[in-house]
Amino acid sequence: MNTVPIYEVKNKLPLFMHQAEETGPVFISRRNQPVGVLLSFEDYNRMINRSRKETILDKAAEFRRKTAGLITNEEIDKIFDVRDYSTEGTSWENDIFEGVFSN
Hints:
By secondary structure, the chain is α+β, with helices and mostly antiparallel strands. It has six helices and three strands; from the N terminus they run E-H-H-E-E-H-H-H-H. It has helices at residues 6-11, 13-23, 41-51, 56-66, 73-79, 92-101; strands at 2-5, 26-30, 33-38. The protein has a three-stranded mixed beta sheet. A hairpin with a 2-residue loop joins strand 2 and strand 3. It starts with a strand and ends with a helix.
């Protein structure tokens, strides 16, 4: 782990940027306390892509792109509709239970 004081980074930024690209993150300190990290663009993108979780909206957008012209937007909206349609004041679990076990 390479840690350098902030005043040194200020004076030699190109050197430390090259070092971050070649050998990995360069940690920056002020008064012996860590205050920042210099990353290569590649390391940054790898970190961002690893931590991002796909949402149902991402999946819906991808589905829309793949089925453009084959299915209408209204039909796609129905497929990805995740709203709770349970009776007011109850949960969807209660509605299912009532539907299965009621006389």
